[in-house]
Amino acid sequence: MTRQKINLKSKAEIQKMRESGKILAYILNLLSAKIVPGVSGDEIEEIAKKEIKKHNSIPSFLNYKIYKEGIPFPSCVCFSVNDEIVHGFPYGKIIKEGDIVGIDLGVKFEGFHSDSAVTIGAGKIDEKARKLIEVTKNSLYKGIEQVKSGNRSGDIGFAIQNYVEENGLSIVRDLVGHGVGRSVHEAPEVPNYGNKGEGFKLCEGMTFAIEPMVNEKSYNISCDNDQWTIRTVDGKLSAHFEHTVAVVKDGCKILTKL
Protein backbone atom coordinates (compact mmCIF):
# COMPACT_ATOMS: atom_id res chain seq x y z
CA MET A 1 0.00 0.00 0.00
CA THR A 2 1.25 3.50 -0.84
CA ARG A 3 2.19 5.43 2.30
CA GLN A 4 -0.45 8.05 3.05
CA LYS A 5 0.20 11.27 4.99
CA ILE A 6 -2.46 11.19 7.70
CA ASN A 7 -3.30 14.33 9.67
CA LEU A 8 -3.86 13.36 13.30
CA LYS A 9 -6.35 15.48 15.23
CA SER A 10 -6.03 16.89 18.74
CA LYS A 11 -8.79 16.36 21.31
CA ALA A 12 -9.94 19.94 20.67
CA GLU A 13 -10.10 19.33 16.92
CA ILE A 14 -12.04 16.10 17.40
CA GLN A 15 -14.49 18.02 19.58
CA LYS A 16 -14.97 20.54 16.75
CA MET A 17 -15.65 17.66 14.38
CA ARG A 18 -18.13 16.28 16.91
CA GLU A 19 -19.99 19.61 16.88
CA SER A 20 -20.06 19.48 13.08
CA GLY A 21 -21.25 15.87 13.26
CA LYS A 22 -24.13 16.70 15.59
CA ILE A 23 -25.38 19.34 13.18
CA LEU A 24 -25.10 16.88 10.31
CA ALA A 25 -26.90 14.13 12.24
CA TYR A 26 -29.78 16.47 13.09
CA ILE A 27 -30.21 17.52 9.45
CA LEU A 28 -29.85 13.98 8.11
CA ASN A 29 -32.51 12.73 10.51
CA LEU A 30 -34.80 15.54 9.40
CA LEU A 31 -34.26 14.71 5.72
CA SER A 32 -34.74 10.99 6.31
CA ALA A 33 -38.19 11.58 7.80
CA LYS A 34 -39.20 13.40 4.60
CA ILE A 35 -38.55 10.39 2.36
CA VAL A 36 -42.08 9.31 1.45
CA PRO A 37 -43.74 8.55 -1.89
CA GLY A 38 -44.30 11.76 -3.82
CA VAL A 39 -41.49 13.81 -2.29
CA SER A 40 -39.06 15.36 -4.75
CA GLY A 41 -35.30 15.52 -4.57
CA ASP A 42 -35.62 19.28 -5.06
CA GLU A 43 -37.60 19.53 -1.82
CA ILE A 44 -34.97 17.55 0.08
CA GLU A 45 -32.21 19.74 -1.34
CA GLU A 46 -34.03 22.92 -0.35
CA ILE A 47 -34.54 21.71 3.24
CA ALA A 48 -30.88 20.71 3.50
CA LYS A 49 -29.72 24.07 2.17
CA LYS A 50 -31.88 26.03 4.63
CA GLU A 51 -30.93 23.90 7.62
CA ILE A 52 -27.20 24.06 6.91
CA LYS A 53 -27.39 27.85 6.70
CA LYS A 54 -29.56 28.00 9.84
CA HIS A 55 -26.82 26.16 11.75
CA ASN A 56 -24.09 28.56 10.56
CA SER A 57 -22.52 25.80 8.51
CA ILE A 58 -21.35 25.25 4.95
CA PRO A 59 -22.31 22.32 2.66
CA SER A 60 -19.24 20.17 2.05
CA PHE A 61 -20.32 18.83 -1.34
CA LEU A 62 -21.79 21.83 -3.16
CA ASN A 63 -19.40 22.79 -6.02
CA TYR A 64 -16.93 20.11 -4.93
CA LYS A 65 -14.61 18.85 -7.69
CA ILE A 66 -12.92 15.47 -7.82
CA TYR A 67 -10.28 16.86 -10.16
CA LYS A 68 -9.39 20.34 -11.39
CA GLU A 69 -11.14 20.17 -14.78
CA GLY A 70 -14.11 18.23 -13.47
CA ILE A 71 -17.74 19.22 -13.26
CA PRO A 72 -18.50 20.73 -9.81
CA PHE A 73 -21.07 18.82 -7.78
CA PRO A 74 -24.33 20.78 -8.15
CA SER A 75 -26.11 20.23 -4.80
CA CYS A 76 -25.75 20.04 -1.02
CA VAL A 77 -26.98 16.45 -0.85
CA CYS A 78 -26.07 13.35 -2.79
CA PHE A 79 -29.46 11.81 -3.57
CA SER A 80 -29.15 8.29 -4.98
CA VAL A 81 -32.20 6.19 -5.87
CA ASN A 82 -32.47 2.40 -6.34
CA ASP A 83 -29.59 1.33 -8.64
CA GLU A 84 -27.67 4.57 -8.03
CA ILE A 85 -24.89 3.71 -5.58
CA VAL A 86 -23.64 7.21 -4.68
CA HIS A 87 -23.29 10.79 -5.98
CA GLY A 88 -26.75 11.03 -7.51
CA PHE A 89 -28.23 14.48 -8.11
CA PRO A 90 -31.51 15.40 -6.37
CA TYR A 91 -32.93 17.59 -9.10
CA GLY A 92 -36.00 16.41 -11.03
CA LYS A 93 -36.45 13.17 -9.09
CA ILE A 94 -39.87 12.21 -7.67
CA ILE A 95 -39.81 9.32 -5.20
CA LYS A 96 -42.22 6.44 -5.77
CA GLU A 97 -43.66 3.80 -3.45
CA GLY A 98 -41.04 1.08 -2.92
CA ASP A 99 -38.01 3.16 -3.93
CA ILE A 100 -34.92 3.15 -1.75
CA VAL A 101 -33.10 6.46 -1.38
CA GLY A 102 -29.53 7.08 -0.28
CA ILE A 103 -28.88 10.50 1.24
CA ASP A 104 -25.21 11.44 1.70
CA LEU A 105 -24.47 14.77 3.40
CA GLY A 106 -21.35 16.66 4.40
CA VAL A 107 -21.24 19.71 6.70
CA LYS A 108 -18.42 22.13 7.48
CA PHE A 109 -18.67 23.91 10.84
CA GLU A 110 -16.00 26.23 12.22
CA GLY A 111 -13.37 24.82 9.87
CA PHE A 112 -14.08 21.11 10.25
CA HIS A 113 -16.07 18.72 8.08
CA SER A 114 -18.22 15.72 8.95
CA ASP A 115 -19.68 13.19 6.51
CA SER A 116 -22.54 10.71 6.91
CA ALA A 117 -25.08 8.77 4.85
CA VAL A 118 -28.21 6.67 5.26
CA THR A 119 -30.51 4.70 2.96
CA ILE A 120 -34.28 4.90 3.49
CA GLY A 121 -37.18 2.98 2.00
CA ALA A 122 -40.12 5.05 0.69
CA GLY A 123 -43.43 3.62 1.83
CA LYS A 124 -43.70 -0.16 1.60
CA ILE A 125 -40.54 -1.77 0.23
CA ASP A 126 -40.08 -5.40 -0.75
CA GLU A 127 -38.12 -7.97 1.20
CA LYS A 128 -34.95 -7.82 -0.92
CA ALA A 129 -34.75 -4.04 -0.46
CA ARG A 130 -35.40 -4.36 3.27
CA LYS A 131 -32.64 -6.96 3.63
CA LEU A 132 -30.21 -4.89 1.58
CA ILE A 133 -30.74 -1.82 3.77
CA GLU A 134 -30.51 -3.81 7.00
CA VAL A 135 -27.32 -5.65 6.00
CA THR A 136 -25.65 -2.47 4.79
CA LYS A 137 -26.42 -0.63 8.03
CA ASN A 138 -25.27 -3.57 10.13
CA SER A 139 -22.06 -3.88 8.10
CA LEU A 140 -21.18 -0.27 8.95
CA TYR A 141 -21.30 -1.08 12.66
CA LYS A 142 -19.33 -4.29 12.10
CA GLY A 143 -16.60 -2.08 10.67
CA ILE A 144 -16.87 0.49 13.46
CA GLU A 145 -16.38 -2.29 16.04
CA GLN A 146 -12.85 -2.75 14.65
CA VAL A 147 -11.86 0.90 15.14
CA LYS A 148 -9.33 1.01 17.96
CA SER A 149 -5.68 1.92 18.32
CA GLY A 150 -3.40 -0.90 17.16
CA ASN A 151 -5.86 -2.48 14.73
CA ARG A 152 -5.35 -2.28 10.98
CA SER A 153 -7.56 -0.83 8.27
CA GLY A 154 -7.82 -4.34 6.85
CA ASP A 155 -9.61 -5.40 10.05
CA ILE A 156 -12.35 -2.86 9.27
CA GLY A 157 -12.62 -3.94 5.64
CA PHE A 158 -12.61 -7.65 6.49
CA ALA A 159 -15.40 -7.27 9.05
CA ILE A 160 -17.59 -5.39 6.57
CA GLN A 161 -16.89 -7.62 3.56
CA ASN A 162 -17.28 -10.86 5.49
CA TYR A 163 -20.66 -9.86 6.93
CA VAL A 164 -21.97 -8.59 3.59
CA GLU A 165 -20.92 -11.69 1.65
CA GLU A 166 -22.24 -14.03 4.34
CA ASN A 167 -25.62 -12.44 3.59
CA GLY A 168 -25.37 -13.09 -0.16
CA LEU A 169 -24.68 -9.49 -1.18
CA SER A 170 -21.62 -7.76 -2.62
CA ILE A 171 -19.43 -4.93 -1.38
CA VAL A 172 -18.34 -2.24 -3.85
CA ARG A 173 -14.55 -2.27 -4.43
CA ASP A 174 -14.00 0.81 -6.57
CA LEU A 175 -15.22 3.30 -3.95
CA VAL A 176 -13.89 3.52 -0.40
CA GLY A 177 -14.08 5.43 2.86
CA HIS A 178 -11.68 8.29 3.53
CA GLY A 179 -10.13 10.63 6.03
CA VAL A 180 -12.17 13.64 7.15
CA GLY A 181 -11.05 16.84 8.87
CA ARG A 182 -10.26 20.29 7.56
CA SER A 183 -11.01 18.76 4.14
CA VAL A 184 -14.03 16.56 3.50
CA HIS A 185 -11.79 14.07 1.70
CA GLU A 186 -8.26 13.51 2.94
CA ALA A 187 -5.93 10.59 3.66
CA PRO A 188 -6.26 7.77 4.46
CA GLU A 189 -8.38 5.68 2.12
CA VAL A 190 -10.45 3.17 4.12
CA PRO A 191 -11.57 0.21 1.97
CA ASN A 192 -14.74 -1.68 2.84
CA TYR A 193 -13.02 -4.97 2.00
CA GLY A 194 -9.70 -6.53 2.88
CA ASN A 195 -7.80 -8.96 5.06
CA LYS A 196 -7.23 -8.99 8.80
CA GLY A 197 -3.89 -7.54 9.87
CA GLU A 198 -3.26 -5.70 6.60
CA GLY A 199 -3.42 -2.01 5.72
CA PHE A 200 -2.39 1.00 7.80
CA LYS A 201 -2.27 0.85 11.60
CA LEU A 202 -4.94 2.80 13.47
CA CYS A 203 -3.77 5.24 16.12
CA GLU A 204 -5.28 7.85 18.41
CA GLY A 205 -6.19 11.08 16.62
CA MET A 206 -7.19 9.54 13.28
CA THR A 207 -10.57 10.67 11.93
CA PHE A 208 -12.17 9.04 8.92
CA ALA A 209 -15.44 8.04 7.30
CA ILE A 210 -16.42 4.40 7.03
CA GLU A 211 -19.01 3.97 4.29
CA PRO A 212 -19.98 0.53 3.01
CA MET A 213 -21.76 0.57 -0.35
CA VAL A 214 -23.53 -2.74 -0.84
CA ASN A 215 -25.05 -4.07 -4.06
CA GLU A 216 -27.80 -6.62 -4.48
CA LYS A 217 -25.78 -8.55 -7.08
CA SER A 218 -22.54 -7.55 -8.87
CA TYR A 219 -20.16 -5.20 -7.07
CA ASN A 220 -19.09 -3.66 -10.39
CA ILE A 221 -20.04 -0.04 -11.05
CA SER A 222 -20.60 2.39 -13.91
CA CYS A 223 -20.56 6.18 -14.10
CA ASP A 224 -23.16 8.28 -15.90
CA ASN A 225 -22.25 10.95 -18.44
CA ASP A 226 -22.76 13.61 -15.76
CA GLN A 227 -19.34 12.43 -14.40
CA TRP A 228 -20.83 11.95 -10.93
CA THR A 229 -23.71 9.48 -10.65
CA ILE A 230 -22.35 6.00 -9.87
CA ARG A 231 -24.72 3.08 -10.38
CA THR A 232 -24.74 -0.71 -10.49
CA VAL A 233 -23.81 -2.23 -13.86
CA ASP A 234 -26.75 -4.65 -13.77
CA GLY A 235 -29.52 -2.26 -12.70
CA LYS A 236 -29.91 -4.01 -9.32
CA LEU A 237 -30.37 -2.17 -6.04
CA SER A 238 -27.62 -0.60 -3.95
CA ALA A 239 -27.55 0.82 -0.39
CA HIS A 240 -25.11 3.09 1.44
CA PHE A 241 -24.49 3.94 5.10
CA GLU A 242 -21.72 6.10 6.54
CA HIS A 243 -20.40 7.58 9.79
CA THR A 244 -17.39 9.77 10.53
CA VAL A 245 -15.43 8.28 13.43
CA ALA A 246 -12.40 9.14 15.54
CA VAL A 247 -9.82 6.81 17.04
CA VAL A 248 -9.66 7.83 20.71
CA LYS A 249 -7.86 6.55 23.79
CA ASP A 250 -10.65 4.15 24.74
CA GLY A 251 -11.41 2.92 21.20
CA CYS A 252 -13.77 4.65 18.80
CA LYS A 253 -16.02 7.68 18.92
CA ILE A 254 -18.80 8.10 16.35
CA LEU A 255 -18.83 11.80 15.47
CA THR A 256 -21.94 11.88 13.25
CA LYS A 257 -24.72 10.93 15.61
CA LEU A 258 -27.02 12.99 17.82
Which short descriptors sum up this protein?
258 residues; alpha+beta; Creatine Amidinohydrolase; 4-stranded antiparallel beta sheet
Question: What does this entry look like structurally?
Answer:
The protein is an alpha+beta fold and 258 residues long. It has a single domain (11-254), classed as Creatine Amidinohydrolase, CATH 3.90.230. Helix content is 27%, strand content 26%. The chain is built from four helices and 15 strands. A five-stranded antiparallel sheet has the order 8-7-9-14-15. Strands 1, 2, 4 and 5 form a four-stranded antiparallel sheet that branches. The chain is globular and about 45 Å long.
Write the layout of secondary structure elements.
Elements: H1 11-33, H2 41-54, E1 58-59, E2 77-81, E3 84-86, E4 100-109, E5 112-121, H3 127-144, H4 153-166, E6 170-171, E7 177-179, E8 186-190, E9 207-210, E10 213-215, E11 221-223, E12 230-232, E13 238-240, E14 243-248, E15 251-254
Antiparallel strand pairs: 1-4, 2-4, 3-12, 4-5, 6-10, 7-8, 7-9, 9-14, 10-13, 11-12, 14-15
Helix pairs in contact: 1-2, 3-4
